[in-house]
Amino acid sequence: MSFFDLTLAALHQQMAPLHVSHVHTLWRAIYREGERQPADRQDFLPPLQKWLRTLDPLFFPEAVHTIPSHDGLTHKILLQLADSAQIETVLMGYPGRHTACLSTQVGCAMGCVFCATGQGGFTRHLAAGEIVSQVLHHQAILRQNGQGHLRNLVLMGMGEPLHNYAAVMAALDIISDTRGINIGPRRISISTVGVVPGIRRMAEENSPYNLAVSLHGATQAERARLVPVAKKWPLEELIDTCHFYCKKTARKIFFEWTLIENENDTTEQARALSDLLVGMPAHINLIPLNPTAGYNGAPSLRAVKFKTILRAAGFPVTIRQRRGIDVAAGCGQLAANCGQLAAS
Ligand code: SF4
Question: Is 292 close to ligand 1, i.e. is its CB under 6 Å away?
Fold first, then answer.
């Protein structure tokens, strides 16, 4: 376990034998001030310094590759973890604010046919600290460039967040803590491809984070063609669970729809989607496909028509901005999906 796996409550427990007032000082130093060598701080008592030295060096993943978009506003960063596994994380700049897109697993087990990450299969879950450290990495860049703080987070990078529920929620507990990183839960979005037990658990726990559900198909057959996990959790069960979530939490759901030419972009499919979501507090995000080497589909040119039909049915609809698309090339849906939700 690394330091970054510890919630503030867990840190209190670990440091119970030490001078307790320094727990908050340490937390603030690491998460608010970007301290990288807390064991050397003179304002910490010797027992705390000694305890910090017993930890592995506070491990910050190394950026082994950074790709800026042509407009310079989006950076896709490849991070190397302690076991040499590599994950992507994305920093996106908007006027007056920055959003980060985080990975939650190395690879992904969900196998969405159009996604390069899914095409590559699953390697392992990320620990909470490995999710948190992506945020620290982005914060360090912003601090270095005098660009302020991260404002929004989307969990739409490599992996299915609800397949790694406990680590994701522990990480978000750390990230949203007001005494440290302090990104408010309403500024954090969890995106799932439809892991029904995870959605139900979020509802039952009244999880404060935004929920985005990737649909891509409005019938079981059409959805299962694109999203194999639909065979495990069929569309009807998914929609029932979404209704349950909305009722239990009194919150809306963001539904994502990757628009693929001649696959799921017809007038009939737009109408089927609006019928499917009738009565649901929903915001629909349309995402033109980000082409990947392992899938033949092409981005739809009918996004505006599709949007018009959904709007006429009374749904708020957004089409993703095509910014940062150049850095997404060849890496799955990472930057493409992130940019869409962050803009909504
Ligand atoms: S789209 Fe998301 S859930 Fe689907 S395979 Fe890719 S990373 Fe996994």
Answer: no
Q: Which of 101, 242, 331, 338 is catalytic?
A: 331
According to the model, what pLDDT value does residue 46 have? 85
Strand-by-strand arrangement of the 152-155 sheet: 62-68, 74-80, 86-94, 97-101, 152-155, 188-192, 210-214, 253-259, 282-288, 317-319
Amino acid at the residue 285: N
Contact 89, 104 (CB under 8 A): no
Q: Is the CB of 100 under 6 A from ligand 1?
A: no
User: pLDDT per residue over 199-224, tens digit each?
Assistant: 999 999 999 999 999 999 999 999 99
Interval 107-146: pLDDT, tens: 999 999 999 888 889 999 999 999 999 999 999 999 988 8
- Residue 251 tokens read as 């919150």
> Phi/psi of residue 63, each to 5°?
-80, 115
Residue located via tokens 């809306």: 252
Q: What does pTM read for this prediction?
A: 0.92
Does residue 88 have an active-site annotation? yes
115 noted as active-site residue: no
Residue type at 4 in one-letter notation:
F
Q: Tell me the CA distances in angstroms from 310 to 261, 278, 340, one per residue in order.
A: 18, 11, 17
Domains delineated in the chain: 3-54 (no CATH), 62-343 (3.20.20.70)
